[in-house]
Amino acid sequence: MRRGFRKRVIEDVPPVTPRIVQYRIERMYCTKCRKFHEPDVDIALPGATLSIRAMLIVAFFKTGMRMSIEDVSMTMREIFDLSISEGEVPNILSQLSESIGPEYDKLLEQIRDAPSRHMDTTSWRVNGENHDLWTFVTKSEAIFRITKSNNHEVPLAVLGDHKGTDVHDRHSAFETLAKKTGNDQQYCWSHIICDAK
Fold first, then answer.
1. pLDDT tens-digit series, residues 73-85
2. Which of 15, 31, 60, 71 could form a disulfide with 67 if both were Cys (CB 3.0 to 4.6 A apart)?
3. Sign of the four-CA dihedral 56, 62, 66, 70
4. Is the dihedral of CA 82, 87, 91, 93 positive or negative?
């Protein structure tokens, strides 16, 4: 019998334990405005007890993975050993939404000003109810919006008075948008090819 060696690669996820950091923050009192002033802590939003990373994981589980609030809370506890109450999950989403709002508005303006944008919609379940997920995409930006309605009012509200070419799959909402805005239209090639087969 001859002996030899072979290589075997195994990927693993190391155990995760939360890291708790206490910051010592210098505060200054202004006698003119009669308020304390202090620098921001860069890993957390003002007033938050969780880091931005932990908050983004909560948001990913809730919106990206479509988990229930109960499942988000349980998953954070089981995987990351972080105790997050079910009531805290919506608060985290609200805090993130408020802090990201100005960046979302900038993205929206860039999409409106782009020479062309791709648009699509698909069904999306939220807490067991039917909704629609709308996407508006350029070469370098993308925004998503989840709504209960599936008509032309949604892209009209998102894009407003925009110019350029709208690329879509001939969904009636986009057809109506074209009539209202007078913008150039381009149909998605994959749908045209499917129709030709």
1. 999 999 999 999 9
2. 71
3. positive
4. positive
Beta-carbon contacts of 64 under 8 Å, excluding residues fewer than 6 positions away, are: none
pLDDT at 188: 85
Domains of the chain: 28-100 (no CATH), 114-196 (3.30.420.10)
The two tokens of residue 43 are 């890993």
At position 133, the amino acid (one-letter code) is L
> Is the distance from CB of 184 to CB of 166 less than 8 angstroms?
yes
The model's pTM: 0.73
Burial class of residue 72 (count of CB atoms within 10 Å of its CB; 0-12, 13-18, 19+): buried
Q: Is the dihedral of CA 90, 94, 96, 101 positive or negative?
A: positive
State the burial class of residue 185 (Cβ atoms within 10 Å of its Cβ: 0-12, 13-18, 19+). middle
The owner of tokens 């939003």 is 45
